[in-house]
Amino acid sequence: MDVKPKFTERKYLLILLTMAILFLLWGLALTLGDVLNKHFQNVLHVSKSRSALVQLSMFGAYAVMGIPAGLFMRKFGYKNGLMLGLFLYAAGAFLFIPAANTASFNFFRLALFILACGLATLETVAHPLVAALGDQRTSDQRINFAQAFNGLGGVIGPLIGSYFILKAGQEHSSDLVSVKHLYIGIGTVIFLIGIALTFLKIPPLLHNAHAATGASMPEGKTVKKLFAHKHFAFAVVAQLFNVAAQGGTWAYFVNYGHEIMHFSDEKAGYFFSLSMVMMVGGRTAGTLIMRYVAPHKLLAGFALCNILMCLIVAQGFGWISFIALLFINFFFSIMFPTIFSLGLKNMGSQTQQASSFIVMGVVGGGIFPPLMGLIANHNIASAYYLPIICYTVIFLFGYTYEKIKPL
Questions:
Q1: What are the angstrom distances between the C-alpha of 49 and each of 41, 45, 380?
Q2: One GO molecular function term (predicted)?
Q3: Which of 126, 131, 333, 397 could staple 139 via S-S, CB 3.0–4.6 A?
Q4: Do 190 and 25 meet the contact criterion of CB atoms below 8 Å apart?
């Protein structure tokens, strides 16, 4: 009689919970960036397509930092990789001080780029570490569990941003002072967490977990080159399109609420936070459903649902379309962690390097928002036709995974 594998081991619980907190922290940073997108339009008087360069700066950092972070982790271990990520995160946050003082859009982009280099490093390290905290058969569930906290951070980001940055009538609603003060606070918190992390003990066994998996391959069998693994190569492509859809959807959510629903920026920001609550709910539900439904099948089903949601959103039907916009995040919920874990299946000693390339796929979130912005400059609703391309690619990845999955 087959025994279901454990979610994780008791000895790994503290490490898993610590990783969950870090997932929360970079979720907060990403969605807060989308609030800044709208604020820069108002204060620095940039167009929608140019304000989307915020997303290019943040997600572009993933393309730059993905491989270096993987190499750093491989040489110095998980713990030092996490420390590097937190240091860069804090450094980028503190650079908001001179950026706000000079009111320079390009300086803000530099600060966000350095901050996002920290996020990319954290993601590169955290995903394979969480995957190693137990049986590989339950790695999808552990990563989705950790990503639920990422969604919680995504809820907190718009709430903080809407209250401190977008709220009309407050003293600094039309300047950059509140932005500066907020990021000073964030940088301080991240720096202190980095100090606390020095006391976390990660068992040496985990550093060799993936190598051990690779060592169990039959003697004489040639290890394929990294991109010869079809499931991994398709995962990199799927992740690029996945984050492209995410970046575009989030970048113009507040604009959609303002222009289609005629909300204030602050109220639209609170609805953005609600959509992130729905994403947390989707990840929680998805983690449970994956106990009974194969992850790749659930991924394909959710991708089809989002194609339908985008079609409805693009019509600009008022509340019907706005509710569909909220539900995009529910169905989007499992996509990032599931694509990540499916791509890392049975990669053995190449797992850490593979993680770096999948993280690099996140650059899609920087490329797509400016493209959507060109349409959004004329019609914000019509811009939501573009993510349908992304969800089609994700559907194909999930639908064909059974044929290309590793043995």
A1: 10, 12, 11
A2: fucose:proton symporter activity
A3: 131
A4: yes
Three-state DSSP class for 379? coil
Burial of 378 (0-12, 13-18, 19+ CB in 10 A): exposed
Q: Which amino acid is at 158?
A: P
| 85 closest CA partner among 25, 155, 151 | 25
Q: How far apart are CA 357 and CA 321, in angstroms?
A: 35
Which residues 6+ apart lie within 8 Å of 297 measured at CB?
Answer: 398
Instruction: Give the SS3 label for residue 103.
Output: coil
Q: What is the CA radius of gyration of the chain?
A: 20
> How far, in Å, CA of 324 to CA of 269, rounded?
16
Q: How far is CA 293 from the centre of its chain?
A: 24
Whole-angstrom distance, CA of residue 27 vs CA of residue 348:
28
Length of the chain: 407
Are the beta carbons of 125 and 73 closer than 8 angstroms? yes
Read off the pLDDT of residues 313-338 as tens digits, 9 standing for 90 and up: 999 999 999 999 999 999 998 898 89
Residues whose CB is less than 8 angstroms from the CB of residue 396 and which lie 6 or more positions away in sequence, other chains included: none
pLDDT score for 158? 87
Rounded CA separation 175/154 (Å) = 24
Structural domains present in the chain:
11-207+225-404 (1.20.1250.20)
Distances (CA, A) of 275 to 100, 271, 362, 370: 29, 6, 21, 22
Residues 219/96, Cβ–Cβ less than 8 Å: no
Q: Which two tokens stand for residue 362?
A: 């996140």
Q: Is 80 exceeded by the pLDDT of residue 221?
A: no
Name 19's Cβ contacts closer than 8 Å, sequence gap at least 6: 126, 129, 130, 133, 146
- Other C-beta atoms closer than 10 Å to the C-beta of 226 total 15
- What pTM, to 2 d.p., does this model score? 0.76
d(CA 91, CA 124): 19
Using DSSP's 3-state secondary structure scheme, residue 104 falls into coil
Q: Indicate the range of 10-19, 169-178, 197-206, 361-370 predicted with least confidence.
A: 169-178
